[in-house]
Amino acid sequence: MVHRGKVDMWHERKGYGFIKCDEFNEDLFVHCSSFGGGNLIEGSEVTFDVEDDGRSKKRAINVEGPGVDRERDQGRDRRGGRRDSR
Fold it and tell me: Which pTM was predicted?
């Protein structure tokens, strides 16, 4: 079942964040691997599926929509090293 929500918080350097969805009483964890890499744009609408994480919490998977930014690759080159001086 596809759900709708907004990106509540996104940690660009760590590649994870949370999606707020009115259907659930908790913010849903989301990792960049659940949408093919890149970043999510805070405040943007997304659609997603939900699965249990094995620890009695739920997480968002198959995240899609205008809030998914696959162009930004977390400031890393293809070998995993930093491109900038951070």
Answer: 0.76
Burial grade of 63 (CB within 10 A; 0-12, 13-18, 19 or more): buried
Q: Could you tell me the CA-to-CA distances from 8 to 29, 46, 58, 67, 76 in Å, in that order?
A: 10, 11, 15, 11, 24
For 40-82, write each residue's pLDDT tens digit.
Answer: 999 999 999 999 888 888 999 999 998 888 775 545 443 344 4
Q: Which of 72, 66, 68, 59 is nearest to 30 (CA)?
A: 59
Judge whether 46 and 17 are in contact, CB under 8 Å: no
β-bridge pairing 28-31 and 16-20: antiparallel
What is d(CA 71, CA 69) in angstroms, rounded to the nearest whole number?
A: 5
